[in-house]
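Quick start: what a row looks like.
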Amino acid sequence: VAISVDSNGAYVALKSTNVITATITDAFGAGVAGVVLQPALSSTSSNYSATAVIPTVTTGADGKATYSLTDAAAVAAGFDKVTFTAVAGTTLAGTNNSTIHYSKPN
């Protein structure tokens, strides 16, 4: 079972809303439904807050779960790193992350 995350390395507009998708697949590449994931921002992210509570997300029938991030604190050359971790008690153990970079539009 594996966790893959899209948007890694993407450059996005300042203060934009970005949807990051984690996909859980089994050994045959099929999506795994019902896996509970905890998204979290790294402490070096532009939008990090030690008091922020981010709700868990659960994979659907296609094995995908999404997290939307709007970073009001984003600055040019800043970034947010979102890590998805399987919640204890699920059938999966592991983490994976995606880093998005902010840039001013030309």
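That is the whole record. The mean pLDDT is 80. The chain has no helices and eight strands.
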